[in-house]
Amino acid sequence: MAARMKAESDSAKTAIEAANARSERYFAAGKADSAAMNYAEDAMLMMPNQAAIKGRAAIQANMAEWMGYGTWQMSATTTRVDANGPLAVELGTYVETFTPGPHAPPGMAPMFPDTGKYVTEWRKVNGAWLVSVDIFN
After folding, report:
1. What percent of the chain has pLDDT over 90?
2. Which of 1, 58, 80, 98 is in the most buried spot, having the most CB atoms within 10 Å?
3. H/E element holding 74?
């Protein structure tokens, strides 16, 4: 069982890192619709200091709002992936920077760059790893 889970974890990590790289490009380009496609239809995004965002459509709307404030650069570093069958848990760290645009709320830029850690639960859906729960701080 340990060898099977190691092989599944290694395979999932490769796919998850590729999905994270796509997300980084989508964020930099301001493409909320593309970034949200990494999330399952019933996914949940839990960001600091706000209520959980439930569902891909709501996650996409939230991303579009934030992307409308300016330009984002995000870098995720996966430190661990544990997978078993169609479920995987990813641990990692992130760095994100923000350049405010004309629609940024006053005072938004001073809190960036932001660094932190995250836990993401992934679910394999029709052969693709999708985010089912995403939490960071």
Report:
1. 95
2. 98
3. strand 70-84
Q: Any alpha helices (H) in the chain, and if so which ranges?
A: 2-29, 32-36, 56-67
Residue tagged 């997978």 (tokens): 83
Distance CA 39, CA 36 (A): 6
Q: What is the mean pLDDT of residues 60-72?
A: 96
- Name every residue whose Cβ is closer than 8 Å to that of residue 93 and which is 6 or more positions away in sequence: 76, 77, 79, 115, 116, 117, 118
* Angstrom distance (rounded) from CA 58 to CA 56: 6
Strands 39-46 and 70-84: unpaired
The band of 7, judged by pLDDT with boundaries at 50, 70 and 90, is: very high
> Distance between CA 27 and CA 21 in Å, rounded?
10
Residue 126 dihedral angles phi and psi, to the nearest 5°:
50, 40
- HSE at residue 134, side-chain half, CA atoms within 13 A, is 22
